[in-house]
Each structure stands twice: as C-alpha cells, then as structure tokens.
Amino acid sequence: MIYLVSELNWLQWIIALATSFSIGLTKTGIPGLSILFIPLMAEVFPAKASTGIVLPLLMFADVFAVAYYRSHAVWSHLLRLLPWTTLGIVIGFFVMDKISDSQLKPIIGTIILVILVISFWFNNGQKKVLFLPQNRWFAVGMGVAAGITTMMANAAGTIVSIYFLTMKIPKTEFIGTSAWYFFLLNWFKVPFSSSLGLITADSLLLDFIVFPAVAAGALLGIVFLRRIPEKKFRVIVQALAAIAAIKLFL
C-alpha cells in the first residue's frame, strides 16, 4: 500500500502530529510515552511504512535530547548495551520479512512484563534478584531484545527504560544516557531501513511537515523533567512500561 502526503486524511494528520509531539516529550522528559502513540501510526498508515516515518522523527528528537543532556550520559552502561543492541538490529533486519506483527507483539509484551516484574522486585525488595545489575547476561539479553524490537517496531524504548531503572540511574542521567544511546542507535538503523524501502521521499516530506510538533514536545519535556520528583519519575516510567506491554497483547 502506497501513501501520498497530498492524499492524507484528517485522522492520519492528527495521529502523525500526536505521535511526533509524544516522541519529543519522550526523549527529553517522559521515557516510554511515545510507545502509546507509535502503534497508532501502524493503524492509520501501512504497518511497515510507519516505521520509516517514525525513524526520522526519533532522530530529530534525539538531537534535542543529546544537545541538552549531552554531559549527563553514563557511558559504562552505554558500552555494555550498544554492541548487543547492534547485533539485535541485524537479527531484526533478517527476520523482518519472516515474522508478522501479530506474532511479534505478544512476544515483546511478555518480555517487557517479565523484565518489569524483575525490575520492580529488585528495586523494592529486600534481596538482590540474581544480582542483575552486575550480571553480564542481563545486559546481553536486554541489548539484543532492544535491537530486535527497535528494528522491527521502533519499540526499544520500554526495554531500555526498564534496564536503566534496574540500574537505579538518577532521572537526569537516565535521560542523558538514553539520549546518546538512541542517537547512536537510530543512525545505525538508517541503512537497514533504507535498504528495506521504508524511508521514502513521501515519508521524509511528512516528517518535515510535523517536525515542529517534535520540537514542541522536546521543549515541554525539558520543563517537565526539571519539576518532577525522582520517585514520581520512576513510578511514571514503570507505569508506562506496564501499559505498553499490556497494549501489545490487545
């Protein structure tokens, strides 16, 4: 199914603008929020084409996040995740034509819910759960899972958010580390998405038109993060992760 920007209806424009705004807000202030909107893009646009529309929006929002939080990244966490995430992207690239959205969604949802329960237990219980922060295989599994989901559905944000919550990173370092992680990750994805024909002249034109909504969301996210207490920030991220996981089963 091919779409033309000149032929988009009002619902497609509303969803595109709302998704763009949520992406900006996610990158600088409320991690995980955009996962509630990105699936809507696959409902009003061709499913795979929607990933080609969303990727440049994510990259534009990454620029805002990196520019503002560039000095707050915890590079030790980035270096643990990135090699395995790139492996996951390659895996996702090869299986993208072999698995349907209906098959992938419940798998991702189950992974997220399991990790969320483990993370909640670790952060609130009296015992360390399998010493997860020090467990190398935890980083390997999370990195590969994030790479596969970001390549196939631009949905790695929830998995990475849970990983950083488990690491107990303060909110500013959380956003700064996420900013650099996804800035590098999304640029790495471009050749793969282009070779699959997901990024087109029309998708880039649509992105250009809705870029101001991304900028507005990013600026609001910066204000939001300054004002929200650390504990509430963690609760919001956990709640959004749970909602996103459940939504994948619907």
Describe this entry's structure for a reader.
There is one protein chain. Helix content is 77%, strand content 0%. It has ten helices and no strands. Helix 2 runs antiparallel to helix 3, helix 3 packs antiparallel against helix 8 and helix 4 packs parallel to helix 8. The longest helix has 27 residues. It is globular, with a radius of gyration of 17 Å.
**Overall 3D form:** globular
End-to-end separation = 24 Å
Query: What is the average per-residue confidence, as pLDDT, rounded to a whole number?
Result: 82
Q: How many domains, in number, for the residues?
A: 1
Tell how many strands the DSSP assignment holds: 0
Q: What amount of the residues lies in strands?
A: under 5%
* Secondary structure tally, helices: 10
Structural class: mainly alpha
Radius of gyration: 17 Å
Q: What percent of residues adopt helix (DSSP H or I)? A: over 70%
Task: Please trace the helix and strand order, writing H or E for each element.
Answer: HHHHHHHHHH
Contiguous uncertain segments of 5+ residues: 126-131
The main β sheet shows up as:
none
Lay out the secondary structure.
Blueprint: H1 10-28, H2 38-44, H3 47-69, H4 75-95, H5 101-124, H6 136-153, H7 156-166, H8 171-195, H9 201-227, H10 230-247
Helix pairs in contact: 1-2, 1-3, 1-9, 2-3, 3-8, 3-9, 4-6, 4-8, 5-7, 5-10, 6-7, 7-10
